[in-house]
Write a structure and sequence with these properties.
Length: 491
């Protein structure tokens, strides 16, 4: 029997649903909100601290956000855009800390300098050009550059121990970087949602969605315990179910999902909690990706702080599984096939042989080979100090392209029904870090008749709402300083 109607149904217990639910609860406190998560708790898939890099993506150190043109110029536009998005997240979190929605900042965000480290004359020249471009941007104030081994050693000692003499290398460093525990952040947001009346249900798997004549959605679900079926109606549905979002959007029947597919890529990290090693490295250090490797596989050596304990992670190393989620189905990859997406997916496979070669190469690496890869960062790394941990699944978007037929997209994309009554999110990095910006865009698209009325409260929550910071140096400096203070971050 139907349980009645809710104003908003959020499918999936990750950071995206938590962010959208929190925004809507702040903007429309009388709305009924329900959350369905198929696992026994929230934040167990891509939002879990050990299933993602937790970087707090601000494009401070990720080279793929500053591509080099054929003429040798470096374009900072994407890096600036991502940094703008992350600043919105920081403003939102700082306001929620101030209002008691979130716990002490150290429970989910900590200061961790962001660095880029490269070797070889070509990459050193590129990094220097990148530095010269970014240092002029207000949001990248404080970026440092060095080719001096003594300076780099003071930034990150593990990088420089027993480094080969005569090898060209360089690094940049931004002291204002962060490490984010998105698992803790997600749990805190859902706790507050539940405390303020949201119906947050775990062990609840959505099976079917059907749009009704009145514009609402009939959603059928099944409880994991007892396999009990149920049904609920929702005026608005958000599918924030990670890799399963494609499945559910396909089941909804909206034509906008036609032509989309996803390619699953898993990951592993090397992890150490050896106090002697952890004490010598406090930074997130990114480098160049291997030839043929996707952007999500850029190697990095990260300080992580999870539940108050510091550790180091290195990776990721790609793995393959046909599952769209860590707790998915072995039939996911074939179950997605539809007449509208098989052409684009085959074209992606044809156009990306280097990706297949890269994956095969990754799959044959054993623990020793993976530690060998780590030694490009940490020359003194010992096999016994590092253990392999399994990270989450990433469902990379494949979609139609009018020129190429099909393309593999690295990033996130919101799919919205024509009437705005349903939306879902596909894709991966830099997702979690830019969740606030992505959800603000969704609000504008799905609630166009309400967004103007919501603007005063949105400006309270996110002072830079509707504006850019990088074009206003004084505003950028003020916002960076205020959020750093509110989140107890130190450079």
């Amino acid at each position: 029997m139907p349980e009645g109607t809710v104003d908003v149904l959020l499918i999936g217990g990750g950071i995206m649903s938590a962010t959208l639910g929190t925004l809507l609860q702040e903007l429309q406190p009388t709305w009924k909100i329900a959350v369905f998560e198929r696992l026994h708790d929230v934040a167990l898939e891509s939002s879990n601290a050990w299933n993602n890099a937790g970087t707090g993506h601000a494009a401070l150190c990720e080279l793929n956000y500053t591509p080099e043109g054929k003429d040798g110029s470096v374009d900072p536009a994407k890096a600036i855009a991502i940094n703008e998005q992350f600043q919105q997240s920081r403003q939102f979190w700082s306001k929620l800390v101030d209002e008691g929605v979130l716990d002490a900042p150290s429970t989910f965000i900590n200061s961790t300098p962001h660095m880029t480290f490269v070797r070889g004359e070509k990459d050193v020249a590129f990094l220097k050009k990148r530095y010269e471009v970014l240092r002029e941007q207000p949001l990248f104030a404080g970026i440092e550059y060095s080719e001096d081994s003594r300076v780099i050693n003071s930034w990150a000692p593990l990088l420089m121990q027993k480094r080969r003499k005569g090898e060209p290398f360089a690094a940049t460093r931004v002291p204002a970087g962060t490490d984010v525990d998105f698992g803790a952040l997600t749990r805190q947001l859902f706790d507050h949602l539940a405390e303020n009346g949201a119906d947050v249900r775990t062990n609840t798997e959505v099976r079917r969605l059907k749009r009704l004549s009145d514009g609402s959605w009939r959603v059928k679900y099944r409880r994991s315990i007892g396999r009990t079926p149920g049904e609920i109606r929702a005026k608005f549905v958000f599918v924030g179910a990670g890799g399963w979002a494609l499945k559910l959007l396909q089941r909804s029947g909206i034509p906008e999902i036609s032509g989309y597919g996803v390619f699953p890529i898993g990951g592993q990290f090397l992890k150490t909690t050896n106090p002697a090693l952890v004490a010598q490295h406090k930074a997130k250090v990114y480098s160049q990706a291997s030839v043929g490797a996707p952007p999500m596989s850029v190697p990095h050596l990260d300080t992580r702080v999870v539940d108050g304990e510091a550790s180091l992670l290195f990776g990721p190393f790609a793995t393959f599984s046909p599952k769209f989620l860590k707790n998915g189905s072995l039939f996911d990859i074939v179950g997605q096939v539809r007449p509208g997406n098989i052409g684009p997916m085959l074209k992606v496979a044809w156009d990306n042989p280097s990706l297949i070669t890269y994956l095969v190469g990754e799959l044959v690496k054993d623990h020793a080979k993976k530690v060998d890869s780590l030694r490009t960062f940490v020359p003194t790394a010992k096999d016994e100090d590092w253990e392999l941990i399994q990270a989450g699944q990433r469902a990379q978007v494949m979609k139609k392209d009018p020129e190429k037929g099909g393309v593999l997209q690295f990033g996130t994309e919101v799919i919205t029904g024509a009437d705005g009554s349903i939306a879902g999110l596909l894709g991966a990095s830099p997702g979690a870090s830019t969740a606030v910006s992505i959800m603000l865009g969704l609000l504008k698209t799905c609630f166009p008749d309400r967004i103007d009325g919501w603007e005063p409260r949105l400006r309270e929550l996110i002072p830079s709402f509707g504006e850019t910071l990088n074009a206003r140096p004084d505003a950028a400096e003020e916002v960076l300083s205020e959020t750093a203070e509110a989140l107890a971050l130190t450079a």
